[in-house]
């Protein structure tokens, strides 16, 4: 497969999981076409699913009349994704650490934790209704040596 | 073997029900609901249920599944039963490690080990 140098797209989709799935699939196909390996794709997929669910469920409160915006730029070196919802936003610092003893059996916070664990950058805007994530390609250095 | 489509296959060995997840990906609300509706009736079959959940077929899951596993484990422990997980691939094992749920759940290499570990 010929690797692509740059993919840049934006999509606005209805705020429901079934509507978001094709965008998720398209983005992951683009990630693969830019040469990212299986481990990177797994991590990006996980972060993407969690971010989408957060936008639909917590951001837009499952209101199908609202939408979710996705913008992404993929180069052979990194994947840069922004996902926005139409909700009131949240303060990431207020989300309890799901790893602490008192929260281990509670729901909530694990999606954000997994996003942070699998992406190199996870940051929110001031309002808290837009998440920006970056994943640097694990095998990028190796490819440069090859060339 | 009972077949509950499309989420789990159930087999009974010794004093345990072994439920094998049949989907490769478990992601959204409908997946979780389907799994919930398949597994919860197993917990009603006797006062104290031993359940082994086999993840051998699962290649991808989201954090929503973890919430379901916690609900299942609570229900089983409340009735003095035992709950074991097995067949979890390394990438998914990492999800359990990151969330520290590897300390909460009793995780085994395969179903044989899981059944052997039952008291």
Count up the helices of chain A.
Answer: 4
Per DSSP E runs of 2 or more residues, the count of β-strands of chain A stands at 5
CATH class of chain A: Alpha Beta
- The total count of strands of chain B amounts to 8
How many domain regions of chain B? 1
Helix vs. strand class of chain A: alpha+beta
Distance between the termini of chain A: 16 Å
Tell me which protein chains meet in the greatest interface and how many residues each side has.
Answer: A-B, 18 and 20 residues
Instruction: Provide the helix percentage of chain B.
Output: 25-40%
CATH evolutionary superfamily of chain A: Histidine kinase-like ATPase, C-terminal domain
Question: What is the radius of gyration of chain B computed over CA atoms, rounded to a whole number of angstroms?
Answer: 13 Å
Shape verdict of chain A: globular
Report the principal-axis shape of chain B: globular
Protein model, in words:
The complex is a heterodimer of chains A (147) and B (119). By secondary structure, chain A is α+β, with helices and mostly antiparallel strands. Chain A has one domain: Histidine kinase-like ATPase, C-terminal domain (Heat Shock Protein 90, 2-Layer Sandwich), CATH 3.30.565. Helices cover 37% and strands 23% of the residues of chain A. Chain A has helices at residues 17-33, 38-59, 110-118, 140-146, and strands spanning 7-14, 67-74, 78-84, 121-124, 130-136. A five-stranded antiparallel sheet of chain A has the order 1-2-3-5-4, covered by helices on one side. In chain A, strand 4 (121-124) and strand 5 (130-136) form a beta hairpin. The longest helix of chain A has 22 residues, at 38-59. The two termini of chain A are 16 Å apart. Chain B has 119 residues and is an alpha/beta fold. Chain B has one domain (2-116): STAS domain (Transcription Regulator spoIIAA), CATH 3.30.750. Chain B has helices at 29-39, 63-78, 90-98, 111-116; strands at residues 2-4, 8-13, 16-21, 25-26, 50-54, 60-61, 82-86, 106-108. In chain B, the strands form two sheets. Chain B has a six-stranded mixed sheet. Chain B has a two-stranded parallel sheet with strand order 4-6. In chain B, strand 1 (2-4) and strand 2 (8-13) form a beta hairpin. In chain B, helix 1 (29-39) runs parallel beside helix 2. Classes of the chains: A alpha+beta (147), B alpha/beta (119).
């Amino acid at each position: 497969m010929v690797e692509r140098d740059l993919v840049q797209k934006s999509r606005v989709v209805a705020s429901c999981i079934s509507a978001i799935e094709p965008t998720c699939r398209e983005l992951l196909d683009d990630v693969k076409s830019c040469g990212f390996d299986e481990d990177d794709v797994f991590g990006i997929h996980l972060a993407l699913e969690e971010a989408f669910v957060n936008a639909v469920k917590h951001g837009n409160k499952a209101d199908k009349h609202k939408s979710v915006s996705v913008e992404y730029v993929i180069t052979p070196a990194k994947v840069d994704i922004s996902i926005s919802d139409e909700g009131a936003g949240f303060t990431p610092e207020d989300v309890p650490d799901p790893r602490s003893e008192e929260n281990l059996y509670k729901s909530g916070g694990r999606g954000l934790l997994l996003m942070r664990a699998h992406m190199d950058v996870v940051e929110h805007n001031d309002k808290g209704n837009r998440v920006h994530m970056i994943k640097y390609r694990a095998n990028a250095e190796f490819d440069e040596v090859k060339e | 073997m009972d077949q509950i489509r499309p989420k789990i296959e159930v087999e009974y060995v010794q004093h345990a029900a072994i439920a094998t997840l049949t989907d490769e990906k478990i992601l959204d609300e409908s997946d979780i609901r389907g799994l919930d509706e398949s597994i919860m009736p197993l917990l009603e079959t006797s006062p104290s249920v031993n359940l082994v959940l086999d993840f051998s077929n699962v290649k991808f899951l989201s954090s929503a599944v973890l919430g379901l596993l916690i609900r299942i484990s609570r229900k089983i422990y409340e009735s003095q039963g035992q709950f074991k997980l097995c067949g979890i691939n390394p990438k998914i094992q990492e999800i359990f490690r990151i969330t520290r749920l590897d300390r909460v759940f009793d995780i085994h290499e395969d179903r044989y080990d899981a059944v052997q570990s039952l008291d």
